[in-house]
Every structure is written in structure tokens, then in C-alpha cells.
Amino acid sequence: MSEHRREKMLVEAIQNGTVIDHIPAGKGLTILGRLQLRNAEVRLTVGLNLPSHGGGMKDLIKIDDWRFTEQDAAELALFAPKATVNIIEEYRVVRKFPIGLPETFIGVFVCPNANCITHVEPVESRFSVIQEATLQLRCHYCERAFADTLFTENKS
Amino acid sequence: MNNPLFDRDVVSIGDLSKADIEFIIERAAALKQSGPMPLLKDRLIASCFFEASTRTRLSFEAAVQRLGGTIIGFSDSGNTSTKKGETLTDSIHMIAGYADAIIMRHPREGSARLAAEVANIPVINGGDGANQHPSQTLLDLFSIAECQGRLDGLSIALVGDLKYGRTVHSLAQAMGHFKPRFYFVAPEALAMPAYIEDSLRAAGIAFEYADSLEAVVPLVDILYMTRVQKERFDPTEYMHLASQFVLRPEMLKSAKPSMRVMHPLPRVDEIHPAVDRTSHAYYFQQAENGVYARQALLSLVMNEGVLSPGGGLV
Fold first, then answer.
1. CA atoms lying within 13 Å on the CB side of residue B68
2. For position B314, what pLDDT does the model report?
3. Cβ neighbours of residue B230 under 8 Å, at least 6 residues apart?
4. A-contacting residues in B 124-143 (Cβ below 8 Å)
5. Nearest 5°: CA angle at A40, between A36 and A46?
6. What is the pLDDT of residues A50-102, one digit of tens each?
7. What pLDDT score does A9 carry?
8. CA nearest A119 in B: which residue?
9. How many CB pairs under 8 A join A and B?
10. What torsion do the CA atoms of B82, B83, B86, B90 make, to the nearest 10 degrees?
């Protein structure tokens, strides 16, 4: 079987749902954790350290019966900015889009500032994305900006 | 006349444009000159201090009462249902049903933004943790404009705790509209945070660090002192720092005659009391200006019309 055909099958072998492809090797489990946080019942199939088309390794996640919107995908942007999302219907890719960095993250991350009001009130966290020399997220409430690594390194 | 502040929340100095700031300062000057006006007559203002404060609470309450408004509220959270576990969200929902505007201070950063989103009446931030204290910045700007006759192109030294001091952060941010030159005088451990330096660079604002007060006194129009908290240092280290960062009257000999010393107060020992008797001392006028700046802010938020030079609302 050609490498290309093998990769195509890896992506398409679910009937309906979403396949997140080209996840940097090692980030698959983090993304898995986040997906389970959003939907504990969802059926997930995971491939780790798969050969990547361009050489090297990648992770891949298949999600049955959940067609991602661009907003769903954007929530994963900090973890896998170069991943692609394939929407599958009847075993075929019907739509494919890159994961894009959103302007804001709502209800996705916990504010790293321990004294931020969002830790003690029933309110969704909200961060705006600042792309200057380095990527930072600024909390809408406490107004502090934090490096993106602070969010990707902790599980919250 | 169009009033851009009417019915707005004032949470962060960054919410105010240069034009908004100038507008408030002009009204503060007008109110200082005209004396009290009944601009908050029949208005009920909730003064909600979830954390104790002297100057901010008293000057806000003085401002409301001088303008003929009525105050309800509390001066710390000890006697409120916060103690019983009520969320801030619920407290603000309830208070918004009682009053026409809320002035609040709270120990957590972001509390005022949250309150502003919950309340359907204007919320004015009187300090949210280490984050923002916009009315302090407005009174500082009003005082600078008053004693220098302008805000543009001034040389300003910020002295003391530049790391944790929200006052100097907001002042640096707001003065960014007016092309200042900053001199930072601070112990290394209390230097200006990198994110403030980055935002000044991005705005094209000139700043440099100086080693001592003596080095900057002859250069500046405003010497803005802040308190270095003793508890951040061991006693010997503090003594050494104090000798570098305490302002004494003899240091002022080389100052420009128009130079003014400001301080958000309370001062501890960073300004020698003998400085009070020099023509450069300006911190008590600055504190008094807090009432005028807050009168201006409240009257603009609460009234669509603005005060005409003749005294009526237009």
C-alpha cells in the first residue's frame, strides 16, 4: 500500500465526525484531555507517533459523530497551531480547514493570576490574543498578559 | 455639548481616550473654580468598599455629597453578605437595583470589570486589587495639568516601587498620550515591569533609568514619589535603599522653580516632612484635587449634559 493511501485511510476510517490531523507528536494526549473535558462521552480514536507525510512524526485524533466548527477547532489552536481539521461524512472528507488562532478564548483556560476574580465567581474566563514579538493572552478581567506557554504547559 | 462619558463604566484608564481624559480634566478645573454644583441632586450612589480605603472612599463620598447626591454603602466587606458567602455577581445585581451608580473597591483583580458587566448602571472602579485605579490616575493628570499648565511634553520622574505600584503603571500608561520623557528611579528589585516598558516603547515614549534622586531632580517637571514597602527588604538593605530614595529638602536646591513633588499618599518616610514647607511640595493639593476629579467623573457619567462656564447644564 502506498504511503499516501495509508495516510488517507488513517484519516478517513470513521463514518461521520472529525479527524484532527498533523498534530505535533507529543501534543495528542493534551488535545485528547481537552476534548474529554468538553464532552466526556465522545468516542475518540487516537494515533500517536504516526509517520507524517512530510517526514517526522505526528499525532492524530478521530472523533466520532462530532463535526467540528471553526470555533471548536480554534480552542485547540495554542496546542497545535499547524494541525488540520477534516470533517468526515460517510467515510469521505467533505471539508478540510487549518486550525486558526482565534481573537479571543472564552471559557477555555483558567487565568494564571491566582487573584483574578474569575477564580471565585461564576463567570467564563476570557482572553484576547496578542501577537507581538511573542504570543500572549490577556485576561479580559484582571488585564494581565501571559505567555502562551503558561497555558499549554498546565492542564487547566 | 456632546458628553462622551455619559452612562459609561469607568473600569480601566485604558478605556478612556485622550479626548475623554482631557474632557474630564477640564470639568475638574471648572468645578474647582465654580465651587459645588447640584449635579447629583436626587441621585443615589452606592459606595461599595469590599476592602478598606481612606482617601479613595472619603474623597468619592465627599464628591457625591458636595454635588448634592446621596450615598449608601459599606466601608469593608465585614458587615456584608460577602461574609456569608454571597458572590460578587449576586451582590452587584442586588445593589444595581437600589442605586443609580456604583463606586467599588475590591481586593481581586478584574472585579470591577465583572461588576460592570453584571450591573445595568454605571460602575466606577475605585481600585481592583493590584490592577486598576482610574480615578487616582485622573486626579494625578488633573494635578499635573494644574501645576504645569499643560500635559504635553513634560519630563516626569517616577520614583520608588515601580514594580508593584498600580498608580505609576496607570500614570505611565495614561501619560503616554502626551509625549512625556520618563525617568525611572527604583531599586533593582522594584524596577518597572517589562510589559509596561514594552508598551511605552510601542507607543514611542522615551524613558531611562537613573541611579539617584539627585540625578533627576534638576531634569524634571514632576517628581512622582511612591512608597517603598519596608517589608519587601531586610532592615539593613532597607536603610541603604532609604538613603537613595528618600527625598530631603536640600536635594531640591537644583530643581526648576516650577518643579512639583507628587505622591499618591500615604507617605511613610520617602519624603522628609521638611519638604512639605518648600514651594515644590504638591501632594496635599494633589489629594484635595481627588475630590474635584471625582466630582467631574461622577457628574459626567451621571448627566448627559455638561456644566457650562455659566454654571448650568447644557
1. 10
2. 63
3. B238, B268
4. 128-132
5. 45
6. 988 778 899 999 999 999 988 889 888 888 888 999 999 999 999 999 998 89
7. 66
8. B108
9. 58
10. -20
